[in-house]
Amino acid sequence: MKRFRCAEVVELVTVYLEDALDEPARLGMEQHLACCGECGHRLDQFRAVIGVLGALPSEEDLRGDVRDRLLSAFRDRHRRGA
Amino acid sequence: MALAGGTLPPDDVVVAALRTGDEAAFAALLDAWSRGMLRLARAYVSTDDSAQEVVQDAWLAVVEGIDGFEGRSSLKTWVHRILVNTAKKRGVRENRAIPWSSAFERQGGPSDGSSRFSGEDGVPPGPWKDFSVLWPTPEDEALASEVRGQIAAALAGLPDRQRIVITLRDVEGCTSEEVCEILDISAANQRVLLHRARTWVRARIEAYFETVGRPA
Ligand SMILES: [Zn+2]
């Protein structure tokens, strides 16, 4: 099992969250996280940021005229095709 | 094809519906994906109007090309690849550079490994320090809207490629495989861009909490 320093853990947070570490590295990471509060909090912060990003409302919608144009293009295409 | 609930049927059902000219199916797809596509397009072109046109042209290409869809990737990936190609061409026409770095990055934000965020010895960090105040969602609406503003500003300050990757992954909820296919990048590259982007946003939120301080 690899032993990690904090600076290494900081760089590996995303790889860890992607579950893309090999087994020895994952174990080493988990051991470090279990005893280093600072890195544990950073991981929590990452998770919180990801959570907020996933809950962002979308600011812009497809304009009504664009949507209408697309629907009529779809209809025309199938009238032609049929 | 089901319209309600926001969950689309499996690809083969959707594709068959599109090929037979099922307008409700096409409308459902438009409504499910266009917002995310606008957000993605906006990273490549300079105005909201351009982004609307890019998304329109991408959907027109989907309508024309659906008979040729072979199912080698998911329908979502295929549609988003068409969008990215359309947006890139448009960005080139607008002479818009896709920079690798921005002023924000040069100011030393991303991959800042400092430990300013640690609590005092033995004192557990409060909800402001570990962001648990944000998780799962902020209960305080004023805070929620302030943090959304901070995050929007943080995303806007990212280099385009980082912003595109974090938008697809964390905002739109694409998988890493989907992002790699949509953008034609390696898994390693995707992770590096995503990590830098998340690191930057995290640092900005931390800086915000430090500015406002811990409320009484
Ligand atoms: Zn540590």
Automatic annotation (TrEMBL), chain A:
<dbReference type="Pfam" id="PF13490">
    <property type="entry name" value="zf-HC2"/>
</dbReference>
<dbReference type="InterPro" id="IPR027383">
    <property type="entry name" value="Znf_put"/>
</dbReference>
<feature type="domain" description="Putative zinc-finger">
    <location>
        <begin position="6"/>
        <end position="39"/>
    </location>
</feature>
<dbReference type="InterPro" id="IPR041916">
    <property type="entry name" value="Anti_sigma_zinc_sf"/>
</dbReference>
<protein>
    <recommendedName>
        <fullName>Putative zinc-finger domain-containing protein</fullName>
    </recommendedName>
</protein>
<keyword id="KW-0804">Transcription</keyword>
<keyword id="KW-0805">Transcription regulation</keyword>
UniProtKB/TrEMBL annotation, chain B:
<feature type="region of interest" description="Disordered">
    <location>
        <begin position="101"/>
        <end position="123"/>
    </location>
</feature>
<dbReference type="GO" id="GO:0006352">
    <property type="term" value="P:DNA-templated transcription initiation"/>
</dbReference>
<dbReference type="Pfam" id="PF04542">
    <property type="entry name" value="Sigma70_r2"/>
</dbReference>
<keyword id="KW-0731">Sigma factor</keyword>
<feature type="domain" description="RNA polymerase sigma factor 70 region 4 type 2">
    <location>
        <begin position="149"/>
        <end position="199"/>
    </location>
</feature>
<dbReference type="InterPro" id="IPR039425">
    <property type="entry name" value="RNA_pol_sigma-70-like"/>
</dbReference>
<dbReference type="GO" id="GO:0003677">
    <property type="term" value="F:DNA binding"/>
</dbReference>
<dbReference type="Pfam" id="PF08281">
    <property type="entry name" value="Sigma70_r4_2"/>
</dbReference>
<comment type="similarity">
    <text>Belongs to the sigma-70 factor family. ECF subfamily.</text>
</comment>
<dbReference type="InterPro" id="IPR036388">
    <property type="entry name" value="WH-like_DNA-bd_sf"/>
</dbReference>
<dbReference type="InterPro" id="IPR013249">
    <property type="entry name" value="RNA_pol_sigma70_r4_t2"/>
</dbReference>
<dbReference type="InterPro" id="IPR007627">
    <property type="entry name" value="RNA_pol_sigma70_r2"/>
</dbReference>
<keyword id="KW-0805">Transcription regulation</keyword>
<dbReference type="InterPro" id="IPR013325">
    <property type="entry name" value="RNA_pol_sigma_r2"/>
</dbReference>
<dbReference type="InterPro" id="IPR014284">
    <property type="entry name" value="RNA_pol_sigma-70_dom"/>
</dbReference>
<protein>
    <submittedName>
        <fullName>RNA polymerase sigma24 factor</fullName>
    </submittedName>
</protein>
<keyword id="KW-0804">Transcription</keyword>
<feature type="domain" description="RNA polymerase sigma-70 region 2">
    <location>
        <begin position="31"/>
        <end position="90"/>
    </location>
</feature>
<dbReference type="InterPro" id="IPR013324">
    <property type="entry name" value="RNA_pol_sigma_r3/r4-like"/>
</dbReference>
<dbReference type="GO" id="GO:0016987">
    <property type="term" value="F:sigma factor activity"/>
</dbReference>
